[in-house]
Amino acid sequence: MTREQWGQIKQELLETVGRNNFKHWIEPVDLAGIKGDVALFNVPNSFHGNYVSQNFGELMLFKVSNMVPEVRRVDFKVAANIAARPSDGTTHSEQAPQPKKTAIRAFDGPLTCAALDDRFTFDTFVVGKPNELAHAAAKRVAEGGPVTFNPLFLYGGVGLGKTHLMHAIAWELETARPDLNVVYLSAEQFMYRFVQALRDRRMMDFKEMFRSVDVLMVDDVQFIAGKDSTQEEFFHTFNALVDQNKQIVISADRAPGEIANLEERIKSRLQCGLVVDLHPTDYELRLGILQTKSGSFLKQYPGLNMADGVLEFLAHRISTNVRVLEGALTRLFAFASLVGHEITLELAQDCLADILRASERKVSIEEIQRQVSEHYNIRLSDMIGPKRVRSFARPRQVAMYLCKQMTSRSLPEIGRRFGGRDHTTVMHGVRRIEELKVQDAQIAEDLEILRRALEG
Description:
Layout: H1 3-17, H2 19-26, E1 30-35, E2 38-43, H3 46-67, E3 73-78, E4 111-113, H4 132-142, E5 152-155, H5 162-176, E6 182-186, H6 187-200, H7 203-210, E7 215-219, H8 228-243, E8 247-252, H9 264-270, E9 274-277, H10 283-300, H11 310-317, H12 322-339, H13 345-351, H14 353-358, H15 365-375, H16 380-384, H17 390-406, H18 411-417, H19 423-439, H20 441-455
Helix pairs in contact: 1-2, 1-3, 4-5, 10-11, 10-12, 15-17, 15-20, 17-19, 18-19, 19-20
């Protein structure tokens, strides 16, 4: 593995584990080389090596083996001393004192996780109408009391707060209920551990680890779709924990029923608890996030001033997701600090020109469907469902028309998002609304109101 490859892996690790964890634990780790099927890394001391091995070792192995397929283990050494490999085939990192030695159990103590980001707590989560139910449900689970809904399934698009709430639950449980055995990991990590257990013939250890937890949290569960063996094991793990009345928290980028290639029995299980949609942010929530973030930045940059209207401008113009919004504000403050200028509307427009251009007219089909159903005061499930009564059919056609006008999605894809309808149905709906907006003043007014709301 070359230095360039290791640099690429480090960048991927930064994006996965967060800045703080990367700075303190991954950055000091240096590639020493590859010996046989082992990737060797230098670490400052044995404590650092043990911590990285226990908390990030499997993630590093997964990333390295993707780059260099022959690598099957990672090992950490202090200075130039490479420990001799034990005769039983375990790695150096596995020889550190642990309550239970297994090739797949990468945790020690009451809490284990795919590295938690200390920025993602309930205190830093800004609550608004689009996410208030998800926040309330997550807080209830974080109390660690008797299971009231199982599983809690959080879903939504990129940057809407799913992972933030997952981390917040884990942090809260670690503080409030240190007696509980909490496991938090991504679906990708679950799949990797399962494959590793099969390869090393340690399936009993795998089953024991995942079926003896008090709270299981799995992020981005859509990644196991289509992986038949992994889905099978996930299904049995899920059932075992539910039978023991143990809490399960799952996140995904879409609702259980919309995850393609996910087994029907798993979809059914995931839908038996509380399924919560984190809606796209509205203007008030975006402004609240910006106000919270800017307050923190103004303490870091005490000499900076911000003109009135800047935050309101950004909240209106950048509506894609929270990550883009926060990233834009971070860049704006850094730029203003470097050039020594007040943060004005003109400075924001110049500094964030590329982000502002990319954010123009980025409206999703889901956002259009939600906005239209709220405008006509009907349930979203009725609008995209099979019923053909006019009170549902006309809003459905309006939504299809707006999807065609305001997104780059094809007619077949729009049809799939409207209950699996054929593209000819979408075409008919679009043409009908084009006719009606000329003939019917109310339809024309509805379209203008909806367009303004979606573009704002």
